[in-house]
Write a structure and sequence with these properties.
Blueprint lengths: L34 H17 L16 E5 L5 H7 L7 E6 L13 E5 L13 E7 L9 H12 E12 L15 H10 L5 H12 L2 E11 L5 H17 L1 H5 L10 H17 L4 E10 L4
Helix pairs in contact: 1-6, 3-5, 6-8
Length: 296
């Protein structure tokens, strides 16, 4: 559990530089939606893909002409654009997100972009998609919203089709700082907002409850820090950027006993980045959980 510095932390917002967040009605997304976040998404995508042996798709799905693929909570569409470059243009690709600001300006002709939440997908999509991809919505969905989202994904999956959901482990493998203070930031932000930090562990059970079968969980381990070269830098940028993105959810609630000023918050994350860069054998973990919807 994170260390709380004050037994009754003040709820008066701590002054800090604000970033741009989504204005989608009812959204509980904790992270920003600005150009810095687009860069982080694109960089993070490289790190995650390498962690899974450069595979964009882990399930045994067989995509054919006329099939439809959905990227749910697509962000900057990094994964979908990569996929588009590797499959025939006769396969239709769809991307949804509550914030369209990060969508590509000129997507390929077979890519369709839509502003929508995974908790309320278009009714006409029932039984449509042969493959659905979703990544890192642990900062977007509360514990109450996850069952709704997975039921929606089950509804729009084509019988016999597959879903692939990638979520992060909240921990870090590191010989010198496995409990660095920076790692407390998501625990605090998620705790007060009812987001589920253990989503990667809980997803197999949730998918079964939603009706999916053939459920598999695959671990992807990736190096974090300059010690691992470009791959490590990509991962460090993604992870530290995630912590920085949680600044407003924490400081707007008075710091939650984590820090007392914006400068202190920044210093904690700066120190985390330094240690990652200087400490060999620092690794993070993601998990891709894929599952099938039974056929007719």
């Amino acid at each position: 559990m994170p260390t709380i510095l004050h037994s009754n932390p003040p709820q008066v917002s701590i002054s800090h530089q604000q970033r741009l967040y989504t204005s989608f009605p009812g959204s509980t997304y904790l992270l920003p939606a600005d150009d810095s976040e687009r860069f982080r998404f694109d960089t993070q995508h490289k790190s995650i893909t390498r962690a899974f042996n450069n595979k964009l798709v882990l399930s045994p799905v067989n995509l054919q002409a006329g099939d439809k693929v959905l990227d749910s909570g697509a962000g900057s569409c990094s994964w979908l654009l990569d996929l588009a470059s590797t499959i025939p243009s006769t396969i239709e690709l769809y991307a949804t997100d509550v914030e369209t600001r990060l969508f590509p300006a000129q997507p390929p002709d077979n890519v369709r972009l839509l502003k929508a939440s995974v908790t309320d997908l278009p009714e006409e999509w029932t039984g449509t998609f042969q493959l659905i991809h979703q990544r890192l919505l642990m900062s977007a969905l509360t514990s109450k919203e996850w069952p709704i989202a997975l039921n929606e994904l089950f509804r729009v999956t084509k019988p016999g089709g597959w879903v692939e959901l990638c979520e992060a482990s909240p921990g870090l493998d590191c010989p010198s700082h496995p409990k660095h203070k920076a790692l407390q930031a998501p625990e605090l932000a998620y705790g007060v907002s009812d987001h589920e930090i253990q989503a990667a562990t809980l997803l197999p059970g949730w998918l079964q409850q939603a009706g999916f079968v053939d459920i598999h969980s695959v671990e992807g381990k990736y190096p974090v820090g300059k010690w691992a070269g470009v791959d490590g830098e990509h991962a460090r940028i993604g992870l530290a950027g995630f912590f920085r993105g949680l600044k407003t959810p924490i400081l707007s609630r008075g710091g939650l006993g984590f820090v007392e000023t914006e400068e202190e918050y920044d210093a904690v994350i700066d120190d985390f980045e330094r240690l990652c860069d200087e400490t060999p054998n620092t690794y993070g973990r993601n998990y891709t959980i894929y599952a099938r919807k039974s056929g007719y």
